[in-house]
Amino acid sequence: MGRKAGLTDEKLHAVLGNEFSIFNDIERLVIELADAMVTAPSNISDDLYARLTKQFSEEQLMQLSAQIAFENYRARWNRVFDVGSDHIYFWMRKVTS
Fold first, then answer.
1. Mean pLDDT across the chain
2. Cα(77)–Cα(71) distance, rounded to whole angstroms?
């Protein structure tokens, strides 16, 4: 999905290593939101919310938050059933390279 959205291999690998300097300010803001949403209990600070509303409309922020929440749901649901990666990213990389 990341590659379809235009993420480079370099950015995809950076997320795994927690190296965010490669991302622009808006991308880092979205990563910060995702990190805040997946902690337990999740807490979006007033500061983070204020920064988000400077970059995104209310509708955009609702859609973004819903997608992050859905991906978190899927990740947690997969753990219940021990669903592993299908390695499609690596397969697609070989096919498209």
1. 82
2. 10
